[in-house]
């Protein structure tokens, strides 16, 4: 069993309090929280001295390669509240052919499509649901473009929490069916994800559902933070030079940035940070627009459209956390076209045998553009995030048929 040890071992946790990401105001741990009083995300704070004394790099090296190995740096207090569907440590896979073609080396993909429910939403939702269980929640609700709803439904069903999920009407069929199959009540809504979010808010007020929207509860960030912990260890505690992250609500980018700070406080890494690149689609690029305008907050993107549904997020409550991290890291925000995304997905699969999701393709397209514009150098160690399995997305039909009963010219096959 991959994660058995972590599930059974009693280990202390080190959460001290929660903190408003905007004002720094303190909130008590071990209570249900949504957004802070000023309507911004809450961040979980730890006694990092204590955690560092309880958990060393050497300890980590001896633990099973899964998400719960970081237990001391995660919020769940009681072991019985841990839920798991096998959150493996995801592999980092090189794209040598695609890199060579661009005159570069050192191009890697962290392939998050291997996680339960086929996307990295599992990292955030496994933590949010474990904490919902710990804090006595009986029904959760959330808006989703597909993957988050699937992960929420799966983990909620596993611990006996009811889930109510709202998705935009044009969410791909496979996602909606997966959500329902995993036990949620799922509704298609004639609007975008933020419109769905408003319904969740109303339902939360009227029905007492717990709102699990991106960054509106404190623990999804903690789950996503494990990407930062994991990649540091995988890179031998020497972070890559640049990280391309497909940015919707930005949980992963914010979570990794938090992980880097916590690891520095623990003495696990130094002060050097990767350039953080927030990648969006040209048809929905509120962060890119705000970054270019030098703004700390982003205005809603009207008429959002892109094939990369996971990053079709017109407005994000953690906008300033994304933009602060991008700026502090000396990184940038970049929008790519759907054509460039499709081309990137096709190239990675055809040349390097790795099937990316469109959002993962967006990071490859952005890497190419950043390289050609001189924003990064050809020998920078670049890490792309492929956030879901490419198998969940439509692929072009390139098949040809053969008539077994007629003559076949094998010379041309
Ligand atoms: C949710 C999602 C994203 C965006 O992640 P955030 O951390 O919310 O910005 C990117 N790609 C896929 C496949 C997703 O499901």
Brief characterization of the structure:
The chain is α/β, with parallel strands linked by helices. About 35% of the residues lie in helices and about 15% in strands.
Largest sheet: 6 strands, mixed
Q: What structural class do helix, strand and pairing data support?
A: alpha/beta
Count the E strands. 13
The pLDDT mean sits at 95
Which small-molecule species are bound to the chains here?
A: pyridoxal-5'-phosphate
Instruction: Tell me the radius of gyration.
Output: 21 Å
Number of helices: 14
Overall morphology: globular
Strand line-up of the largest beta sheet: 4-5-13-10-11-12
Q: Which ranges are low-confidence, i.e. pLDDT below 50, for 5 or more consecutive residues? A: 1-9
Portion of residues in beta strands equals 15-25%
Instruction: State the order of secondary-structure elements, H for helix, E for strand.
Output: HEEEHHEHEHEHEHEHEHEHEHHEHHE
Helix fraction? 25-40%
Q: Kindly report how far apart the N and C termini lie.
A: 44 Å
């Amino acid at each position: 069993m991959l994660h058995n040890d972590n599930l059974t071992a009693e280990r202390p946790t080190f959460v001290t309090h929660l903190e408003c990401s905007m004002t720094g105001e303190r909130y008590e741990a071990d209570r249900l929280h949504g957004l802070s009083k000023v309507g911004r995300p809450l961040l979980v704070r730890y006694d990092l001295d204590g955690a560092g004394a309880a958990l060393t790099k050497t300890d980590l090296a001896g633990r099973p390669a899964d998400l719960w190995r970081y237990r001391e740096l995660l919020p769940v207090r009681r072991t019985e509240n841990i839920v798991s569907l096998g959150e493996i440590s995801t592999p980092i896979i090189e794209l040598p052919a695609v890199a060579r073609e661009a005159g570069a080396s050192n191009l890697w993909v962290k392939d998050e499509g291997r996680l339960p429910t086929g996307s990295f939403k599992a990292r955030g939702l496994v933590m949010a649901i474990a904490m919902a269980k710990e804090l006595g929640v009986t029904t959760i609700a959330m808006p989703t473009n597909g993957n988050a709803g699937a992960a929420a439904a799966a983990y909620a069903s596993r611990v006996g929490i009811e889930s109510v999920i709202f998705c935009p009407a044009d969410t791909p069929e496979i996602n909606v069916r997966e959500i329902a199959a995993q036990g949620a009540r799922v509704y298609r809504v004639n609007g975008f994800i933020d419109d769905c979010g408003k319904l969740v808010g109303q339902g939360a007020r009227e029905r007492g559902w717990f709102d699990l929207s991106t960054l509106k509860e404190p623990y999804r960030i903690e789950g996503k933070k494990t990407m930062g912990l994991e990649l540091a260890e995988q890179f031998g505690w020497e972070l890559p030079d640049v990280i391309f992250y497909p940015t919707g609500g930005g949980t992963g980018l914010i979570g990794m940035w938090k992980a880097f700070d916590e690891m520095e406080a623990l003495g696990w890494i130094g002060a050097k940070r990767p350039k953080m690149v927030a990648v969006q689609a040209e048809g929905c690029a509120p962060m890119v627009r705000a970054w270019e305008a030098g703004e700390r907050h982003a205005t809603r993107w009207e008429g959002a459209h892109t094939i990369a549904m996971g990053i079709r997020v017109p407005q994000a409550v953690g906008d300033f956390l994304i933009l602060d991290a991008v700026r502090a890291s000396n990184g940038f925000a970049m929008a790519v076209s759907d054509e460039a995304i499709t081309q990137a997905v096709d190239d990675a699969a055809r040349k390097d045998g790795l099937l990316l999701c469109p959002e993962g393709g967006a990071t490859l397209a952005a890497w190419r553009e950043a390289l050609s514009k001189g924003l990064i150098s050809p020998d920078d160690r670049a890490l792309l995030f492929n956030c879901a399995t490419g198998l969940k997305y439509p692929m072009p039909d390139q098949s040809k048929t053969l008539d077994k009963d007629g003559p076949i010219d094998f010379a041309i096959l």
